[in-house]
Amino acid sequence: xxxxxxxxxxxxxxxxxxxxxVRETGADFTVANLENASGGNGITEKNLKALLNLPxxxxxxxxxxxxxxxxxxxxxxxxxxxxPANYPDSAPGRGWTYFEKNGKRICVLNLxxxxxxxxxxxxxxxxxxxxxxxxxxCDILLVDFHAEATSEKLACGYYLEGTAAxxxxxxxxxxxxxxxxxxGGTAYITDLGMTGPxxxxxxxxxxxxxxxxxxxxxxxxxxxxxxxxxxNGVLIDIDDETNKAVxxxxxxxxxx
Length: 256
Ligand SMILES: [Fe+2]
Ligand SMILES: [Fe+2]
Prior knowledge:
Layout: H1 7-25, E1 31-33, H2 45-51, E2 58-60, H3 71-74, E3 81-82, E4 96-101, E5 104-112, H4 123-136, E6 140-146, H5 150-159, E7 166-170, E8 180-182, E9 186-189, E10 196-197, H6 206-215, E11 229-238, E12 245-255
Parallel strand pairs: 1-2, 2-3, 5-6, 6-7, 7-9
Antiparallel strand pairs: 4-5, 8-9, 10-11, 11-12
This protein binds fe (ii) ion (2 copies).
Residues 4, 35-36, 62, 171, 173 line the site of one fe (ii) ion.
């Protein structure tokens, strides 16, 4: 599972290195969070199509899902793409989706937290209303929990302990060191981190963020394009018989 892919640097890292990373790790199924893949804000259909030529099985999103206006029109044509399930039923796209790979039925669910996240409904009643259906229809449930607060992410991990094979956090763009398998067999990490530029601030050119923080005046965000770049994600090992996680390792690579 790959942390928020940011801008052109993020896309180029995947193009140049993802096939090797998948080969080296032996990953059977790859999930990438692409909410920042086009200029840091959502993803265009052109960029999505190009990235889907890589070994990416499922695409998750987050609060930036509608950052590119065209996404509203195209999202229903991409069944491998999920956006937070917190949106009302009338919203385009889907909150979860099913795959078949290597004889396993895999469900990928995208959910947004509520703490410090704009007007999102609480994820927990949403989980209550869908979890039976999800569990009945898959062997392996993978959850991308897109949220700000560490406590809410860990709470979601425990809420799904023993039910999901993995609950991984995204959104903060900073990889956390708390990767572990919860006792019930759920792989957990508070945040996967970001795949994009290393020397910006969460992917944005640092001088822009510094200026807005010092002056308190708004400024247009631009992705830092200079190298070095970073690849952030995790490799999760799931037992073939129990469908529970047995291991979760962080991947953190710097490309000069
Ligand atoms: Fe993000
Ligand atoms: Fe986000």
